[in-house]
Amino acid sequence: MRVFVTGGAGYVGSHCVKDLCEHGYEVVVYDDLSRGHRGAVHPKARLIAGSLGDAAMLESALASQAFDAVMHFAAYAVVGESVDQPLMYYRNNAANTLLLLELMARIGIRRLVFSSTCATYGTPQRVPIPESAAQSPISPYGRSKLAVEWMLDDSAAAWGLGSCALRYFNACGAAEDGSIGEDHQPETHLIPIVLQTALGQRPHVSVFGSDYPTADGTCIRDYIHVEDLAEAHRLAIEAIRPGEYTAYNVGTGRGHSVREIIDAARRVTGQAIPVSEAPRRPGDPPSLVADATQIRTRLGWQPRWRDIEKVVASAWKWHRLHPRGFGDR
User: Fold this and answer.
1) pLDDT tens, 256-296?
2) Nearest to residue 291, comparing CAs of 125, 174, 154?
3) Contacts of 149 (CB under 8 A, 6+ apart)
4) Out of 11, 89, 121, 141, which one is annotated catalytic?
5) Which pLDDT band holds residue 328 (cuts at 50, 70, 90)?
6) Is 141 annotated in the active site?
């Protein structure tokens, strides 16, 4: 199968590309490298450096081979940034995806797996969250992703698109072999921030809010290892049928608080990891945990990385081996 992967030089995208290449897929990565890294792209994949908003270049790339499917990761994904710059998020995440879908329809590519998010649920009424829960996002990031889900659903009946939206929870960890991992500038994800503090690259970890209605007062999240996410994407692309839209949660079904993650990192690294309490951030629900029954039942997917210390240890291996990340900025 030939797969066109937008955003395949980014964190989740690069791990999915690695997984596809190691399972015999032919992969072309399309990425503008504004937030991704050349060094993250698997050597068996071909990289085209281009913008998703460049219609002529994107069409040329999509038509360069007879692609069987598209995996779409190219998006901005920082909640706080989306609150400050909502139009940038709607342009990149929603409008550019609209262009991608128009070109797919014109060329005749009828399968797509979309990198969606649990942020489409907003503040849930029940936890764990099933796919049937109301989608009421509380940030422009979540709204931009939900807008794409609507496009996919409407495209199924209109022009036969077969698609799957994977609403994943907190992506984390790094490749088990230590070859690729998480490298954002600036970094906003908890586990790499904690590990950068353990390496002495930060003075402390800021805990944003200690008064949430949770056991220890800090936010609870479902941490899903990036290699488990990669397998979910591969299983999803194999199961897609033209004219059908599906959506699945991807998570472990178990939540960990901010303080639990910091404590796990202390055990893994052997470092003290200083903490500083800070005010809540806008757009942060108290608890987000997945009910992933549907993807387990329908696609046979099971998370392999269930032990949070092993998850943190995989990320720690990457950060120790690559203290400057990919070193291309």
Assistant:
1) 999 999 999 999 999 999 999 999 987 788 999 999 999 99
2) 125
3) 114, 116, 120, 135, 165, 247
4) 141
5) low
6) yes
Alpha-carbon distance of 317 to 322, in angstroms, equals 8
Concatenating the DSSP letter of every residue in 203-261 gives S-EEEE-S-SSSTTSS-EE-EEEHHHHHHHHHHHHHH--TT-EEEEEES-S--EEHHHH
How far apart CA 77 and CA 37 sit, in angstroms, is: 16
What confidence tier does 329 reach under pLDDT thresholds 50, 70, 90? very low
Mean pLDDT within 59-88: 96
CATH superfamily of the domain spanning 2-172+223-250: NAD(P)-binding Rossmann-like Domain (3.40.50.720)
1-10 pLDDT, tens per residue? 999 999 999 9
Give the CA count within 13 Å in the CB-facing half-sphere of 298.
16
- Sequence spans of domains, the chain: 2-172+223-250
